[in-house]
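ok so I'm stuck.
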Amino acid sequence: MIHIRFIANGILVVLISCNPISERKQPPPSLNQLAAADLNLNGEQLANAYCAACHVKPEPEILDQMTWKEKVLPDMRKRMGLFLDEDFGTTMPIDMDVPKGIYSEFPLIKRKDWEKLQSYYIDNAPSQPNPQVSKANIELGIPGFELIRPEFTETYADLVTMLRIHPKTGDLWLGHRYKSLFVLDPASEFRIKDSIGTETAPIDIHWDGSGGFDLLTMGLMDPSNDSVGVLSNYKKSESGWESRPMFQHLKRPVNNESADFNGDGDPDQIISEFGNHIGELSLYLTGSNGFEKMVLKNAPGARRVEIDDLDGDGDMDILALMTQANEGFFAFMNDGQGNFKEKIILRFQPAFGSSDFRMVDMNADGRKDLVVVNGDNADLSQILKNYHGVRVFINQGDFEFEEGWFYPMHGASALEVGDFDQDGDQDLFVLSFFPDESQKPKQDLLFFRQNGTLQFTPFAPKIDFGSHWLMMTKGDLELDGDEDLVVGVFEFDDLYSKPTAAWSPILVLKNTLK
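replied:
not stuck anymore, here's the structure
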């Protein structure tokens, strides 16, 4: 009893602290500690304790009452091992191919405490999702770009999973959900120059100096805990392309980068394994016996990394965007020998929906800032969220970042940053896979032209057709010195029926600056 009382007193000390979780000197209590304590807390204090044990505590206003009550809170309760009579006859963890350990096998919260926590969220949530704040009006038509919709004679499904522009040839490499990689020639109206069979849907590619390339295929594109992703090396032979798997059994990987992290002169590989309930941020270091795997972060939601010398000590560090529940930016500081220490940079609440980012100097002060889009809206809370959009976090130095600009954009999911108009500052293209269909003009693709430090004018393309955009990439299609943009189509209907119309996988925004 004395031990339990000591734990409870410690929990109260944590709960009355006004500091953010990332700044606390002592870690928050674990769920097992909370379950063992005889807590005498109100609903808000229970939320502070239980939610902070796993991620940043979400405030009630981020979701409406119905979404909390019907979707999010029931799943949260089941994860803590508290099952009620009302659950029987509904989908249970055993029905969802969920690995052991995700949903507790014994209750981590008492029913009376759960009822207080649940009431706190429902009573303090809005009846309807909060609206977006006022924002700059969107101008129709993107200045400096010509819109081209290439016509194809093939009848493939419009299911693009990857787009990249080859930096030397200008060719467009297109990954297709149905295990294919196409090479399209922009000089001849994007005709197909080559078609390559792949393991599963391509998601990332890097070319080498010998004409080959490393291709990351993600396995099952839909949410899954399977480990069938592969990073393969492709070489051209007289009979066609030959592939050699480098790393297999990857958990739904979505991003691959390489650099020499251990100073041996050979490139190491880092793979973001997004996964579903499980995932990893994995580093493969070169050694005398091949690659040695190091798990930097054993958690789902690894989305993308950027490699840079973050602390100025001469070796390469890693900045990772982690999504899913424990969202945020995490730096992995390298000691030069391939040993890493994790450092928390920014953390977001679990419904934030982080989707993509770039690290680039946005205000010309010599420090790289973070540009982030958040709009993932495919899980338990499929409602319009007023905090979805594109943000710039300004680098204050010493690993401190402060939000300097935000533009609300429902479902923002992909990003490209560059000086597209060549006026000396950075502009943005932002794509939304989950737009608000009622907004006019439709806000599924916006161009933000920077006219002064963090002063942006938004533009939408002037088009007379509808589509669903999933991927985009920038690059020089014509090798004329400016950057073009290509957007990839992903039509839900093509998942369930055989296409009958001509293939229409891309929209090209040709830069007319030159």
